[in-house]
Structures are given as C-alpha cells and as structure tokens.
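Late entry, written up from scratch paper. The run itself happened at the end of the previous shift, but nothing got recorded in the book at the time, so transcribing now.
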Amino acid sequence: MKVLSPSASRICDIALVHFAERGYDASSLNEIAVVAGMRKPSLYAHFKSKDDLFNAVLNLALATERHYIEEMFGSVPANDDEPGKLYTDNLSNRYESSAALRFLLRTAFFPPSELKASVTSGFEAYLDRLRERFGASLENRYPALSANEISMFQDAYIAVIDSLHVELIYCSEGTYCRRLTALWRILGDSLSLAVGNVAHE
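Output as recorded:
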C-alpha cells in the first residue's frame, strides 16, 4: 500500500464512509471533494479517477480490518477454550462502528464490475488472514488435533463468518444474535467432540 499524503489520507477517510453508505455507483467524487473542503479538480491532483480513489479506499479498509483481526486474536490468552469466539462475539459491534468493515462487506457483495478482481482478491486475503489466525489459535490450544482436523475447523469457522456477514447486511439484530448463538454452538460442540476423541485415543 503506497504512502499517502495527509490530504490524500483525509480524502480516503471521507470516501471510505461515502462508499460504505452509498456503494460505488451512487457515490459522487464531487460530493466527496465538497466534504473534504476542496474542489473536484483538487481531488484529481491526488487520485486520477474514481477507480483510483476506490482502490485506495479498498486498501485502507483491508489494512484497517486486518489490524483489527490481529488485535482480536492477539488479546486472547493461549489457554482460551473457545478460540475465535471473541472475534465473532464482537462482529456486530464492529460492523456498527467500523466504516471499513461496512465498506468491505458492501463491496464484496456488490463489487463494481470493472473492479471485481481487486475486490475479490482483497476480500479473500482478509478471510484468509482470519482463517490463519483461527488455525494458529487452535494449534496453540489443542496441539493434539491433526492438521486435517484443524484445516476442517478453519473452513467451518470461515463458513460461520461468511454466514454472519450475510446476517449483518440483510437481517435484524435479533435474527443475527440467534444465528450467531446457533452457529457457535454447533462449531463449539464439534470442536469439543474432536478434542475429546483425541484425548481418548
């Protein structure tokens, strides 16, 4: 990610909220420039096109949410019995408070056709990092689990995250909470069973 000037960074911060709320097609560079306190030609001094600005915002959002992943997984003790749960428990609040996550989800579900490749690769990298951190947490907490079992639980965890992302966009808070509880119960019970089986072998 290239280093941005203070003015370009401010434009990106404003555009992040704008794109998160309106999406790519309904966003206006003129409106972003006005909120940034400049004329549209001045915005073009920093970003050559709407696509250029959008890609800069995408990189900003990905960096922000990757940093959040590191914070969430880094703050959990190695002996935690529910690896990955802190992240899922805080996901709804994160969605409400983070324009970066709202932007990422809106963009991942409704990518601009001409930017779909960069959106897809960026979002997959975000999910891959979640998968890696969850897998590392499992290895630390349950070293007796095989690599195949850890890989299976990593895939299940990302399926839970994917499902929760859909709920955040389309469902009410009550529905989201019910499904989070149900999904985590199934994942947690399966993990407990796998750990118990290893212990009895």
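DSSP finds ten helices and no strands in the chain.
(Scratch paper discarded after transcription.)
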